[in-house]
Specification:
Chains A, B: Catalyzes the attachment of L-aspartate to tRNA(Asp) in a two-step reaction: L-aspartate is first activated by ATP to form Asp-AMP and then transferred to the acceptor end of tRNA(Asp). Two copies of one chain form a homodimer. With about 600 residues, the first copy, chain A, is an alpha+beta fold. Chain A is built from 17 helices and 23 strands. Strand 23 of chain A pairs antiparallel with strand 23 of chain B, so a sheet runs across the interface.
Chain lengths: ~600, ~600
């Protein structure tokens, strides 16, 4: 049975009813969270997106038909109830916003019945992910997910509000674009009208937003869908949302300034967190040296120390050979962890190997001042003493060292530092450490390609003061690029772009692009730039990730209404799926069964 | 030569400088619109998105180097100029916001040079569309296009602002979806991880927004990209933007109310037009009878009149046979057009044929009261007199009649009415006639499919008072569907949805869906509805079209930053395009060359 609501008008959402309404008639509608029969009364917890309200059915008040209806109610039935608000007769429920009131039902309609759901609608459900995502429409009823999506909506609104007031225009860029060979893998869309040709879904609106600057739009903003056909990690989705901006006639400080005020605004308005401005800035080199990471979590210390100078002449071959090969020896001090059992240290060694280390050298300073160490035997007392002193090692401390190429040493110790902090519970979720990382290297050497690659992209502006090194020492040229980091997560990043054709040409040369290749890949952008382009700069946030951190969600899927799982499929709608042969015919494409078989065979072999 | 802007800071956009700044130093940046050398002075019109500002270069003030630089400036060079604001020395330019001032340059940097553009950057360019779209980044510099996109940005912002304040949540729905066999043609996206399977780009977020209602989100809003792989008409784009909403626990009046207030708000705030509420409502049947259209332009009269009763016994076979076949005879009175020359009338007849008419009967009432007519000879004086009287025909009027099935008669006269109004210039662009069309038929008979089809979609709620006719006279059942019409254009539409499983089942039965087929197509929505679904309703606007009408653009392309042309290609980026063989291999698809050849042969044959 399902009744119409014709003639009824909802007066309040559940928690919009309060003790200010006592004695008033209200009409509320929602889902049955729970029914309890207590003596001659029936109690219903009614749920909507605002929360829970208690309804009381008393036969003399609601009539025998209404009372009978109330008796049939089960979880997730949708009902409309008219009644009068009164002070709660039983004990006040402190956990509910409406815990001091209840509505005495005078009439009820059952708008929709419900089967028994496959899992209970409740916060912090322990239901398996696959079930939750198959029944996503039920999972989405959970109050915690609802709060996440409501906050996401609010964050997007606050961003737009702020940006509009700062003179940014929201301009939509296309989804059906042209495939660009560089970068991540594109999703392709076959064209029916041009058989054999394909569109690509955009990996970001980068080229379009730079074009808009060349076209004089001055300040652009967009909350834009982006697509990457990559193998998914836990925090990745094949389609994701970017809060994207670009500004003309600015330099780096203008971009950072507007973004700092944006962040302050949304953190205050959305989650009540005060962000102190200006945000700290740290050059990339310092971040790597101190934290082994270009997105350091600065909520705790345990900083890296470079002890290369101290160990350079010692007898421990692991250290000295790393130095001879141009690497470094660095360590962290896990204070107070000197008594860590060998088994646990071994686990850390394994963890370090997962990040590319060949091993991990350790030294624990015993309470009596003696050392327990994997390498002490290779070093003199004096050397050990100097090393411990350099690390600020005190009795009870555990010192951990990595020796390798800089990149590996940073990676290993950066990860280890975080891992230990997690184990020791040093990460306060209510502390918000924002940090700009600046002065990134412009170029990154690729052994694979045997050339320099752009660390951000080929349009990133070098720092004026380094530009004279572009021929002699290209790796030392820093870029006007910046990332915004919160508690060890990169929320977004961007750069000042090159607007001068001579610098751009030189960049392409350094990157090993011929003029032809540059034109093939970026033709229309270079063309546009030849007709007068303003200095411009931009930044993009990963919106999913930003919201995920604001609500402290465990998974990015908890802030996306209809997410995909690791194999990029949607378990609810069963997308992707096979389609009608006729659809493929119209597109003039065929599934290459031979290729499919080969691929499947390969995958089977991998398992 | 292109200089850096390091150390400079823009103080104003061009038209932010005003006579309030006289005597002040300013730094402005923008594009050179025009250079004039006048005596010993150089005048530059500087352009940015805000408008034009006049700069004056006087060698003693700007120095010889600066003056020399100014002498090299050409159209579209990007410059930064510091100078002092003064009252304009020459005559005030009334056409410019800054027409009473000028900036006396004290220094200049050339930030970027420009090639000679292929066309002048100016309003109402007469440049061919293909050139404009190939150089879209230049076309986008035109002040009229910039105003359009700025207004579009504002409209989107106002909508979001209004909706947020009304308790709507903006929730993003996926772009990578599942293909649904019904409806328009889907764009497909091959899956790499699931070779042989495809995603589809959404034609609208319809299913997702209904799911969100089932999930308790209560009020949903989204400005969403939608995709249809159809052959394009002038006002269609393969990807278009929908302002989409859905509301729970509402009936039709709630939806109309919130949308009326939304429209009033955006028309007032964006273009200063006062919309009087409540908007007029007209049942579909009345719209067809009076205007021959379900999106009538009510800015002028010339309404249709049904004269079937008057001509039913006359001697004109065209009229009587149409009536015998269940059709009707209807006419319009083109007042004052009685003297229209025969040649022009013949053109109208041809026009009518384009809309499916077999012909068009006409009668002009001469100034002396006599008739000139294509059919007078078949009718008695009395019959003619009655007919003219029924049409309110006065001397000097032209009466035009169509006789056919109702659908054709409406189509023909509806189109003819508009055509004549255009010719007679009866359409006032500054009048905004909003109108709700309501009570659409629930079903539409399809000769092709030999069954009833849903006029909106299978989830549209029938009107309670008609539901008992669903078996005996299904064509007479009206729906709780509504369109919002402005000056003859459908801006948007929607419906109350069915939330009762018994009504939904009956609908599928009437539509000839087996349970299996219904489940196959709408499985997860029906599943979701079996767990408790609230009454809900929604509406969607075509945002491109809405903005197009607000700015009186001739083409939908003038309100989209990077539009596609009729063959769904982007002339600037050259999308779609061929891709690397490797990309197709990874997706396990092949272009079916045989199919391509056949298709090309077919197309060649058509030409």
């Amino acid at each position: 049975m399902s009744e119409s609501m014709q003639g009824l008008h909802r007066t309040h959402r559940c928690t919009e009813v309060s003790n200010a309404n006592i004695g008033e008639k209200v009409t509320v509608m929602g889902w049955v969270q729970k029914r309890r029969n207590l003596g001659s009364l029936i109690f219903i917890d009614l749920r909507d997106r605002s929360g829970i309200l208690q309804l009381v059915f008393d036969e003399p008040k609601v009539g025998s038909e209404g009372f009978a209806k109330a008796g049939t109610l089960r979880s997730e039935f949708v009902i409309a109830v008219e009644g009068t608000v009164q002070k709660r007769s039983a004990a006040v429920n402190e956990n509910l916003k409406t815990g001091d009131i209840e509505v005495i039902a005078e009439s009820i309609r059952i708008l929709s019945e419900s089967q028994t759901p496959p899992f209970q609608i409740e916060e912090n459900s322990q239901t398996k992910d696959e079930i939750r995502l198959k029944y996503r429409y039920l999972d989405l009823r959970r109050p915690d997910i609802q709060r996440n999506l409501m906050l996401r909506s609010k964050v997007a609104y606050l961003m737009r509000d702020f940006m509009a007031k700062e003179g940014f225009l929201e301009i939509e860029t296309p989804i059906l674009c042209k495939s660009t060979p560089e970068g991540a893998r594109d999703y392709l869309v076959p064209s029916r009208i041009h058989p054999g040709s394909f569109y690509a879904l955009p990996q970001s609106p980068q080229l379009f937003k730079q074009l808009l600057m060349a076209s004089g739009y001055d300040r652009y903003f967009q909350i834009a869908k982006c697509f990457r056909d990559e193998d998914l990690r836990a925090d990745r989705q094949p389609e994701f949302t970017q809060a994207d901006m670009e500004l003309s006639f600015v330099d780096i400080d203008d971009v950072l300034d507007v973004n700092e005020r944006l962040l302050k605004y949304i953190f205050k308005e959305a989650i009540g967190v005060d962000v102190e401005l200006p945000l700290k800035r740290m050059p990339w080199q310092e971040a790597m040296d101190r934290f082994g990471s270009d997105k350091p979590d600065t909520r705790f210390g345990m900083e890296l120390k470079d002890v290369s100078d101290i160990v350079k002449d010692c007898g421990f071959g692991v250290f000295t050979s790393a130095l001879e090969q141009g690497g470094s020896v660095r360590g962290i001090n896990a204070e107070g962890q000197g008594a860590m059992p060998r088994k646990k240290i071994d686990k850390l060694v394994e963890f370090a190997k997962g990040y590319g280390a060949k091993g991990l050298a350790y030294l624990s300073v015993q309470e009596d001042g003696s050392y327990k160490s994997s390498f002490a035997k290779f070093m003199t007392e004096e050397e050990l003493k100097n090393l411990v002193a350099a690390m600020d090692g005190k009795p009870g401390d555990l010192l951990l060292f990595a020796a390798d190429k800089n990149k590996i040493v940073w990676n290993v110790l950066g990860a280890l530092r975080l891992e230990i902090a997690k184990e020791l519970d040093l990460l306060d979720p209510n502390q918000y450490n924002f940090l700009w990382i600046t002065e990134f290297p412009l170029l990154e050497w690729s052994d694979e390609e045997n050339r320099y690659m752009a660390m951000h992209h080929p349009f990133t502006m070098p720092m004026e003061e380094d530009w004279d090194k572009i021929d002699t020492d290209p790796g030392a040229v820093r870029a006007k690029a910046y990332d915004i980091v919160l508690n060890g997560t990169e929320l977004g990043g961007g750069s000042v772009r090159i607007h001068q054709s001579d610098i751009q040409e030189k960049m392409f040369e350094v990157l090993g692009f011929t003029k032809e290749r540059a034109h093939e890949q970026f033709g229309f952008l270079l063309d546009a730039f030849s007709y007068g382009v303003p200095p411009h700069a931009g930044l993009a946030y990963g919106l999913d990730r930003l919201v995920m951190h604001m609500v402290h969600a465990d998974s990015i899927r908890d802030v996306i209404a209809f997410p995909k799982v690791k194999d990029a499929s949607d378990l609810m709608s069963n997308a992707p799926d096979i389609v009608d042969e006729k659809q493929l015919e119209e597109l003039c494409i065929k599934v290459d069964e031979k290729e499919v078989e080969e691929k499947e065979a390969e995958e089977a072999a991998e398992k």
